[in-house]
Amino acid sequence: MTEAPAIQVALGGIPAYELLDSGNRRKLERFGSVTLIRGEPKAWWQPALSKRDWNRARAVHHEDTGWQLQPGCPRSWDLNEGNLTFRARISDTSKHLGLFPEQAPHWQAIRKMATPGARLLNLFGYTGAATLVAAEAGWQPTHVDASKPAVAWARQNQSASNLDQKPIRWIVEDAMKYVRREIKRGSRYDGILLDPPAFGRGPDGNIWKVERQLSELLDLCRQVLTPRPRLLILTTYNIEASSLMLHNLLGDVMKPYGGHLEAGELALSHFAKPDRLLPLSIYARWTVKP
Predict the structure, then answer these.
(1) Which H helix or E strand runs over 149?
(2) Domain ranges within the chain, ordered by starting residue
(3) What is the CATH T-level fold of the domain 7-287, as seen in this structure?
(4) Three-class SS of residue 160?
(5) pLDDT number for residue 210
(6) pLDDT tens digit string along 112-164?
(7) Which one, of 284, 175, 180, 287, lies nearest residue 229 by Cα?
(8) Pair 88, 98: CB distance under 8 Å
């Protein structure tokens, strides 16, 4: 009988962040000194804290009307993760603040797999948390995102983290188009990170739909790997998929290299109810064996 792959639950979190409570499709969080409420479609249960606790939030995001801020609530502030500094920002166009603390297990893997001079490709890199973790650890990252404002934000995080001298390449381009060009140029990478959205639009109007194009993108990524890669991480959020699907996809791509493959969910534990976990993303992660 074939042995089924073990599905992992990887707990994230950083000292500057706390998931205080969740329920009724919302979550109560603390980013640094700012407590806020955002929608969370995976929180089907009842909250553990009282309404009084929830009402202390300084900012609330409503899906239909956007952010509602209490007087004195900042629009931006800094968060520290070790020696790194990330700027949290409340935007009129998004509920996201620029940092995903549940991805901390990936950052640990990036640090563990680092070797001086190794090249890392970060596709859909957003505001650069993983890119800066990699640069600090010794990788030479190439950060690709189709959003010019996101890349500008990432570069601000680079400066705030005193990493301006690190060899980071910042690219504003469609991920598929960039990888195709890298294949033609003969470029090779020792590690690749992918955190694709369910849907997106590139700078040239190219449409991205993860369920239609992820398999093709992974095949392209395989073609830019070095003969001895060290790391490949795939993370997805809010799509109709399972971690087993990601396990199968990465298993096909990385089969020639051996190594270790795991898949599972990225989750956060609650301050109010530590034994309750909030699942946020699914992932598959391949690493070279020591």
Answers:
(1) helix 148-160
(2) 7-287
(3) Rossmann fold (3.40.50)
(4) helix
(5) 80
(6) 999 999 999 999 999 999 999 999 999 999 999 999 999 999 999 999 999 99
(7) 287
(8) yes
